[in-house]
Amino acid sequence: MTPLEQAARAAQHAPSVFNTQPWNWRLADDVLELFADPQRRVDSIDRDGRLLLLSCGAALHHARTYLASAGWSVTVERLPEPARPQLLARLRLGRPVPPDPEAVRMAAAIAHRRTDRRAFDDRSVTDFELTKLRRFVEAEGAYLHTVRPDQIAMLAISTDLGAAAELNDPAYRAELHRWTTRPSQAGDGVPPATAVKPELRRVPVRDFFPDATATLGAGAAHDQGAAYVVLFGPDDEPIDLLRGGEALSALLLLATADGLATAPLSDAVEVEWPRHLLRGLVSDIGEPYLVVRMGYRHDRQPVPAAPRRDPADVITVTR
User: N or C end: fewer C-beta atoms under 10 angstroms in the chain?
Assistant: First the structure.
């Protein structure tokens, strides 16, 4: 198996909205191309494809991280052909290089990173750690705002408003049902084993099963030590969102490598008015892409892995 095919396989572990994994790869010789799959867009909350592009950007960064950890240089062209908007990136394998030490740590986290929707304990995320994460996010072309204690209430209100508006939308309820009742062979979606039961939280967590019961309990902790960060960028053009997804991947992988648990929260960016409130949290200097909750696990039991699509259905290899 070539390094580029291994990179595409590593990218299967990338996070995506509703675990839709909305990407495909095409490999020919020393070139790997990433394509968006619009059939996997969650239209009721992502009509403009913002979350789809963030998801694909995360997959792109996973692939880049694997190659850097394996000691390969790679040239990346983003949105290389305007006439083919679904072609998001073209990676061309270069020469062997010394493995990047941080990439090695982050690549080791790829397979065991999880979205942990349970409550985190009282141990706080340090300013040193948040500064380190911010540097990695900025290296990918995006920015990170740490939500201050006095802003938590606004974040909670924004998230709650977004979630309530969506649950009142029949189209959203239909798509929620679609992506939480997937057959096991599909390798996608959000199964009950990875969702958490609705409970009182500092900032609400999406209720994936409003008419049923999720498997996970929030636990005895209360997110008191959790840090909430807003990932944002200069604009919401496709290139900005793609780079934002790469920054999201860097944030999640580095946090995981450093022993933190993470959970992306997108409810507040899916509805325009709550997204406007989030813009206020970042002082209207950028476009909010996503919120991430991070902290230390209270429950030491690992969260079950989310299902993944068969690489044969995602990666096309031409000889």
Answer: C
